[in-house]
Write a structure and sequence with these properties.
By secondary structure, the protein is an alpha/beta fold. The protein folds into 2 domains: 19-150 and 272-326, 3-Layer(aba) Sandwich (D-Maltodextrin-Binding Protein, domain 2), CATH 3.40.190.10; 151-269 and 341-358, 3-Layer(aba) Sandwich (D-Maltodextrin-Binding Protein, domain 2), CATH 3.40.190. Helices cover 31% and strands 13% of the residues. The chain has helices at 45-61, 80-83, 108-115, 130-134, 158-161, 200-219, 231-234, 249-252, 288-294, 297-305, 330-334, 336-358; strands at residues 36-38, 69-70, 96-99, 120-121, 145-157, 182-183, 244-248, 261-264, 270-280, 325-326. Strands 1, 2, 3, 4, 5, 6, 7, 8, 9 and 10 form a 10-stranded mixed sheet that branches. α1 (45-61) links the parallel β1 (36-38) and β2 (69-70). The two termini are 33 Å apart.
């Protein structure tokens, strides 16, 4: 646990148009018929999409099949990923899926029949760093392959925190000493009292870590939520809503006020949000260049430079030697109890949302 001394984030070039994807305004919501349907976190979206475009265009120039790919860019409206749950036919499902949308995009009947039936493979290469295997990120069933993670850390505003001790572990956030200090990401429209998108990953991890009672104690220390993109802008200023902001490392590291702030990587591990992929067994060989790209060194270098540690075989991501990752694990994600917990977490959050609105 401590301040992370790491070089500046690599600037992302978004100037080159991804021509292989055709008209960027066409077919935004269609989920069927794709060789590859992909999504990554917003800061990476253009550059990862361009890398896929260059690869697919090169394969086409070499006489390969013209692959149909879709990388929605967040123009609003219904996305292809929101439509995936309605697909029941294996042939209609994308042949390869790259996602940062959470690992439960399959509806239960589809998952039971096709995923558990062996129609999809993780294509996870051997040789990833033990940091990731120890966190349980490599799927023991071989269905989902993780190619990178977004680590969530604590962005500390030392002056806002005052004389309180700097938290060292996630469970510390439930301590009443941090009343009015803990801020995680959420967004609401101007004039609204209710939040729309919130960081449910953080909420569910805290519930998994310390139970609903512990999560309630964490929420009791929350003054308000803040869009994650605003956290590095406000941390270390008089406008900071709290002294402990839960943010992805990629954003926390952008905070310029290092004289007032610091990044804490908790002793028990940063929360690891998976970036993952899966591919149909029937197309595994044909789509091997795309699979290799997402697990390969070129993309890994870009991901690592931008604070998304990559599971590239044979390489250690640029993280402190003592750093750990924390994740609930595939068994929990697939357990029906995880859905029960998620509903309970949502109900608890709604209760505290009303409390914040009244306060």
């Amino acid at each position: 646990m401590g301040v992370l001394e790491i070089p500046s984030i690599l600037p992302l070039d978004i100037s080159r148009p991804p021509e292989v994807f055709g008209d960027p305004g066409a077919q935004r919501a269609r989920a069927t018929g794709w060789d590859l349907l992909g999504s990554v976190p917003v800061p990476l979206r253009h550059v990862v999409r361009d890398g896929v475009a260059a690869l697919v265009a090169g394969l086409r120039q070499q006489g390969g099949t013209a692959l149909k790919c879709c990388f929605p860019m967040g123009q609003g409206g219904v996305t292809p990923f929101q439509r995936l749950r309605h697909i029941r036919d294996l042939d209609a499902y994308p042949d390869m899926l790259v996602s940062a949308e959470g690992a439960n995009v399959f509806n239960r009947p589809f998952h039971r029949r096709f995923v558990e039936g062996g129609a999809f493979t993780a294509a996870q290469p051997a040789g990833v760093d033990p940091l990731f295997t120890q966190a349980g990120l490599v799927d023991p069933q071989g269905w989902i392959g993780v190619f990178a993670v977004a680590p969530f850390v604590m962005l500390i505003d030392r002056e806002r925190l005052g004389e309180r001790p700097i938290p060292r572990r996630w469970v510390d956030l439930a301590d009443p000493v941090y009343a009015g200090q803990v801020v995680f990401s959420g967004w609401r429209a101007p004039g609204e009292t209710r939040y729309g998108p919130v960081n449910t990953f953080f909420l569910n991890c805290m519930a998994h870590e310390m139970g609903l009672g512990g999560l309630a104690r964490v929420l009791a220390n929350v003054p308000s939520l803040l869009h994650s993109a605003q956290m590095p802008r406000l941390a270390g200023t008089d406008a900071a809503p709290g002294g402990i902001m839960i943010a992805p490392l990629s954003l926390a590291d952008m905070c310029p006020r290092r004289h007032r702030t610091q990044i804490v990587w908790p002793e028990d591990g940063a929360l690891a949000y998976p970036l993952w992929m899966t591919v149909k067994q029937s197309r595994r060989q044909e789509l091997a260049p795309l699979v290799d790209h997402f697990h390969g060194p070129e993309l890994a270098a870009l991901l690592n430079a931008n604070r998304y540690p990559a599971l590239c075989p044979g390489s250690r991501p640029p993280m402190p030697a003592w750093a750990k990752l924390k994740w609930p694990g595939w068994d929990f994600v697939r357990d029906p109890e995880s859905a029960v917990q998620a509903k309970a977490v949502r109900k608890l959050f709604l209760y505290w949302q009303e409390h914040w609105a009244c306060g």
